[in-house]
Design brief:
With 201 residues, this protein is mostly helical. It contains six helices and no strands. It is globular and about 50 Å long.
Length: 201
């Protein structure tokens, strides 16, 4: 199962980052990458660096399990959990690509405070404010269940924490500054990561 997890991880990175950036460049002349925000040590900076570390360590976990350097946690290492993880990972990849498509030319990795993009409220964004992050967490949960070693569990926790930081400390303040009342209205009616949950009045 570790080999399958590695293949899915490579596919996720190639499609969600590589292919998407290439398509975005063809349409807009920009790759969409904006890098890490904030001064070193700030919440914004920690969110960006933590995200990068989690993504790199995410593929290290199944690689180390494949080589025998890490062993899966016995209680989580069951065929049905691994099967469920494979399904979740596949759903996560598809949902990531679908959400990126719905975001259109506003898609970015990171935030440039001096840049203004359209506030996307259509498609899946009419139900969830951050569907790409929801999809990424679904994918990561799937990979964790496929190769449930200690590193994989830690990586999932770090990814969850850094996504929360990125959304709350970087993206939401930027959207409030940029879109004002329109974003206040949006976040009061649409959930942060799941429909109906995390609305802010």
């Amino acid at each position: 199962m570790a080999i399958t997890a590695i293949v899915l991880y490579v596919a996720f990175a190639a499609l969600g980052f590589g292919w998407r950036s290439w398509m975005h460049y063809r349409r807009t002349g920009s790759t969409g990458f904006r890098g890490v925000s904030g001064r070193p040590g700030s919440l914004e900076w920690l969110a960006g660096v933590g995200f990068v570390v989690a993504m790199i360590a995410g593929i290290a976990a199944p690689l180390l399990q494949l080589t025998g350097a890490l062993a899966p946690i016995a209680i989580l290492h069951t065929p049905w959990l691994q099967g469920a993880g494979t399904i979740l990972a596949g759903i996560g990849i598809a949902a990531t690509l679908y959400s990126q498509h719905d975001m259109g030319e506003s898609w970015r990795i990171g935030v440039d405070a001096g840049e203004t993009t359209a506030l996307v409220r259509h498609g899946v964004f009419s139900r969830v404010r951050n569907p790409i992050f929801t999809a990424m967490l679904t994918f990561a949960a799937g990979i964790t269940l496929m190769t449930p070693n200690p590193l994989a569990l830690i990586v999932f926790g770090v990814l969850l924490l850094t996504i929360e930081l990125q959304v709350r400390a970087v993206e939401e303040p930027y959207l409030v500054r940029t879109h004002g009342e329109a974003y206040h209205d949006y976040r009061s009616t649409v959930g942060r990561f799941l429909p109906g949950l995390g609305r802010v009045g």
